[in-house]
Amino acid sequence: MADNGSPIRSSELRTPSSQDDGPSHDAELEFSVTEDKMAAFIASYTPAQGDGAPLSIQLMESELERAGYKGQLDPDGAKFALQRAEEGKSILNVALVRGIYPQEPEDAIIIGDADFRFPVLPGMIFGTLTAPIKSSNGTNLLGEEIPVLKTNSPETLTVAPGEGCTHDKEINALISNAYGLVQIHDKQIYVESLISVSTDAMQVRATIYPHDCFGSTISLESIGPALEAAEISRPLLLVAGETAIKTAKETGAAQETIIAKGTEPIAGINGWFEYEKQEAHSIGTSLENDRIDFKERGTHPMVSPGDIIGKIHPPVEGKAGEDVYGRMTPPPGGQSFEVKPGAHVEPLPDGITYKAMATGMVTLENGELSVNDVLETKADVDYSTGNLRLEKGSVHVTGCIREGFTVHVPGHILVKESIEGAEVYAGGDIDVNGGIIMGGKGHLKADGNIVAQFAANSRIDCGDEITIAHEVSNCMIRCKGSVTATAGKGVIQGGVIASATGIEANELGSDLGVETVLTIISRQPVNKKLVQEREELRARLMKINDSIGQDSDENTLTRTPIDKREQMGKILILRAQIKRNLKNVRNKISHELLDYYQTLERLSIRAKRRVHPGVTVKIGGKTLKVTKTMNRVKFHFDSDTRTIVAVNL
């Protein structure tokens, strides 16, 4: 461009009206060239005289050709010079022609203002795609070739088909059709989705960021099209989604949340055997028709010859669910209950009702219904009977088992009234029509099930399931099966209750804040063989690193003397193999731990009505203290966050 500080020749200021009459001549230009011969500037300008050709584009081109300069005339520079000449201004130092600079290879890139550390949204244009530019030599104004410094082929970029984005070539726009993070891998552009569907297709999880790649707030509505594109038909969980958005804004950290759920199928009910004996009605689970369901509860009524023992009920069909895609999920069907008549039992003609052929205690074990001989006390187990220790068979106590006495049998124990501070062991089940009132004394243990109306201040060990109708108060219970208190009042308060499969009650704790500890018994698996292998590999790796350092293989070989490089190469190959093996072992340990956590996730502690402050929940080595009253809640272990979570039933 013009340099206003440059001296102006008098010839430049002359116009045809002010010049002396003389011979006509064309306008003339003289040029100066930069040191690198890449640009030519006007150094002198003599306007046309008489009938000579005035300054024009054609004249500039001819003057440059006359001066021997190659290259194309700069149209902008030429127009600028013409304009200034017409205005009577200096055109010195205006660049009219430039050489062609070498073109270094340029990779294809995404151009735009998007920050790809944050997500794109469906329908969003997140950039334009440049084409790769190959290298080419340059030429100066004297026609001399200028070689490029790099000759490598530029890298291309393409959009991975079906991976969350498209390239509209008409407007050269990269358009997202997913909610996720833009990634480039193997020269392909794709959007890594931040929405995932669980393997059973019953949950949709999303990772919510504080804002999108352009800094705008993310809304559930903006994510919605991504769910539609994935054919997810379940409605968004607005409360969970908005909570995650708010938390992400406040903390600046991405939040993972469940944004849609399917409807779980309701499993069918297996067929069951219902006892007819009315005296046992106080022990089982009440059904809607006020009949008692003793299935898998270990109840053992006393019968006489000809008594109807009970009958089989058919299975009840379940209710189908719906996954997040709107597909129906069939419920697990109820299984038929099969009964094989055993000792002193006969079926009636209907094939589902059974009667007793002798006096004794009814047992239903492994599908076989029998009436077995039993030792029956006339009243309490006390000084009148002494301790009862049997080598075989079962016991029917028609009264109570009094404090300080012992009952030890390999079979079942049926107590018509209560157990009070006694030492009681059964190789089978213990059924108590009344309560278990130990007063902090004695010990109750059964390898099978334990059933009672209530339990207070008792120490109980159970090899199967414990069912208490009304209240468990200040007890120390350890149970391999489930602990259930839902048939009547259904309260568990005070003490420590530990189960390997689950705890369920109508109410947990009390409004007085009684300390109640509820635990799912679990032990984190330790694969001693894998742990030992991991430690051995780590020791070998540390020994090599201590010897040769932890630098890269390339740098290690570079600083190794030539005569020792072959040996060093073998060591580096060995180190790489150890690293791979160590990684594989660590992955196996991690997978076993994940399987353990996922198994733990299926176990729960449930309150069908409420949970009070003072309750402590322990699962998987984690602890959760309840600080406020909660209604209809389930506590379970979340394998993703490795924490105990509470969800509404």
SSE layout and pairings?
Blueprint: H1 10-13, E1 28-33, E2 39-46, H2 57-67, H3 75-86, E3 95-98, E4 110-111, E5 125-129, E6 138-139, E7 145-146, E8 158-159, E9 165-168, E10 173-176, E11 180-185, E12 188-193, E13 195-197, E14 203-208, H4 220-229, H5 238-251, E15 255-261, E16 272-275, E17 285-286, E18 292-293, E19 302-303, E20 308-313, E21 321-322, E22 328-329, E23 340-341, E24 345-347, E25 353-356, E26 360-365, E27 368-372, E28 374-376, E29 388-389, E30 394-397, E31 406-409, E32 413-415, E33 419-420, E34 423-426, E35 430-432, E36 435-437, E37 443-446, E38 450-456, E39 459-462, E40 466-479, E41 482-485, E42 491-499, E43 502-508, E44 516-520, H6 528-548, H7 553-558, H8 565-601, E45 604-611, E46 615-619, E47 622-625, E48 630-638, E49 643-648
Parallel strand pairs: 8-12, 23-27, 28-30, 29-31, 30-32, 31-34, 32-35, 33-36, 34-37, 35-38, 36-38, 37-39, 38-40, 39-40, 40-41, 40-42, 41-43, 42-43, 42-44, 43-45, 44-46
Antiparallel strand pairs: 1-2, 2-3, 4-5, 5-10, 6-7, 9-10, 11-12, 13-14, 14-15, 16-20, 17-18, 19-26, 20-25, 21-22, 24-25, 26-27, 45-48, 46-47, 48-49
